[in-house]
Amino acid sequence: xxxxxxxxxxxxxxxxxxxxxxxxPQTDIVRITDTYEKRIDPGENSLxxxxxxxxxxxxxxxxxxxxxxxxxxxxxxxxxxxxxxxxSWPPYFKVNSSNLQAEAADMKxxxxxxxxxxxRHYGWRNEFLSIFPNAVRIKPVAGPxxxxxxxxxxxxxxxxxxxxxxxxxxxxxxxxxRIDPLIEDIEDNLEIAGEAxxxxxxxxxxxxxxx
Length: 211
Prior knowledge:
This protein has about 210 residues and is of the alpha+beta class. About 45% of the residues lie in helices and about 20% in strands.
């Protein structure tokens, strides 16, 4: 049972960590190489696409999605989608995908005359599942070596850890005061009941032997 308990705990916290890593904002220093729009018909990967843009028909299955092509400081290519999140999850309340696409198009540059930007996004990139991170904000930076400190993530994770610790401490206190004594009483009652049953069996056997 101990192995099962720890397996469940590890799976639970693994899922929590994955959800946080997908949802919390991340910032990449990139150079925008191109922008385009593409008709998308989400299928099995629909979980990793945002909802329809605010004001559009939510009943349609396919839609046009903006994309931003970039090259990172290490030379690798990264492609971002640019979708509204509206009032759905994750709670970025993004409704300016068209404006963001215009900003991205205005910041395109070449390798000979690069313009570096800090592109904030959430989500993952997976070529096999056709998953793209969703761009949230674009900001020009001085160069590829600029350092971005994720203050929001630091504050959020610190507060989350404090809340989890506070809940854990209160749960421990509640368990010691209420649950543990109740379990001990049940165990004592079961032990007493077992002893009573054993005594009755002994009496019955002695009665049979005396016949």
